[in-house]
Automatic annotation (TrEMBL):
It comes from Serratia marcescens. This is ANR family transcriptional regulator.
Length: 64
């Protein structure tokens, strides 16, 4: 599996966590994806991390 394929897999997992309302976990997974992402993907990842961190701080979604 290539690096970009690994990134896409981890991004899919992060998105699934978001979908389930597990925002704290999603932010952690997005952060891990930074190591595998292309430069073009980094702004999107940072946006998702910020959103998830804020959502977790506001107790949105489901508790882990």
């Amino acid at each position: 599996m290539g690096t970009y394929d690994a990134y896409r897999n981890i991004a899919r997992i992060a998105a699934e966590c978001e979908h389930r309302g597990w925002y704290e976990k999603a932010a952690e997974v997005w952060e891990k994806s930074l190591k595998l992402a292309r430069a073009v993907d980094v702004p999107w990842i940072k946006t998702r991390m910020e959103f998830c961190t804020n959502a977790a701080a506001r107790c949105w979604g489901n508790a882990q």
